[in-house]
Amino acid sequence: MGPMRIAVTGSTGLIGTALVRSLRSDGHEVVRLVRRPARAGDEVEWDPRRQFVDVAGLAGCEGVVNLAGAGIGDRRWTDAYRKELRDSRVLGTAALAKAVVSLDTPPRVLVCGSAIGYYGDTGDRPVDESAPPGDGFLPNMVVEWEGAAAPAEEAGIRTAFARTGLVVAPKGGAWGRMFPLFKAGLGGRLGSGRQYWSFIALHDEVAALRHLLDTDSLSGPFNLTAPHPVTNGEVTSAMGRALHRPTLFPAPEWALRVALGGLAGDVLSSARVLPARLMESGFSFAFPGIDDAIRAALR
């Protein structure tokens, strides 16, 4: 593909930062949507709460990637923060969908961030994109989040949803909090250790988002998770091997809740999610195994 102009929301987050770097290094022009007046030439102002987007800044964009949303693990999940988690995603997606539809020449593709939280707790039952949503706050939020893109889909813009798992990266997300614990020799399995974690290396997350941007036939939900989900016990062993630290003792649940904040409920529940549609579409993972993914993050 030749150089494209691509708009990205959530560009300062873990995934957004890596995606913008990857796109720019391949010669694409990236405009970043920011929630304040634009200061640099590559910035476009938007305000999801007011449903405002400076639409002129999106002119000429062939693709839009929507990664905006309050951090899942940033704070304790009070009622107020749950509302913030939901609104930042649902209102942001709604504002963006309306904005792209209003353009004289809309983008060819909208890639929307989403989450495997859609499936809820699946225990040890493997699920792919054909599975229905689970029950509870997270599945309900993800259903609303994806639903907010409906205006773009109805206008015929190719829309793909990136249902992302736990991203293995040295900073940010659950792994960013676990690496220091394990390096200090305090890492251990969480709770029973039998819960499944559907992980993805940051490199593969970015590659998969670009695959969804570039492949004209892909729309609807895609699980962005490595092909072999592992249990928390297996993650613990892999972290110990990679960091040469003992992992003999289970991490007490209270320590985890302190370290992981809002993520604790997520990491203590089980989601065994398979990337069926991504694999069918010809995507290949650079770091399919947990040991590969952890080593890539430590490089």
Give an overview in words.
- The chain starts with a strand and ends with a helix.
- It has 299 residues and is of the alpha/beta class.
- It is built from eleven helices and 14 strands.
- The protein has a domain of 208 residues: 3-Layer(aba) Sandwich (Rossmann fold).
- The strands form four sheets. Strands 4-3-2-1-5-6-8-12 form an eight-stranded mixed β-sheet, sandwiched between helices. The protein has a two-stranded parallel sheet with strand order 7-14.
- Helix 1 packs across helix 6, helix 2 runs parallel beside helix 3 and helix 7 crosses helix 11.
- The model has no long low-confidence stretch (mean pLDDT 91).
Topology, element by element:
Layout: E1 5-9, H1 14-25, E2 29-34, E3 43-47, E4 52-53, E5 63-66, H2 79-102, E6 109-115, E7 126-127, H3 137-147, H4 150-154, E8 158-164, E9 166-168, H5 173-183, E10 196-197, E11 199-201, H6 202-214, E12 220-224, E13 230-231, H7 232-243, H8 253-260, H9 263-268, E14 272-273, H10 276-280, H11 290-298
Helix pairs in contact: 1-6, 2-3, 7-11
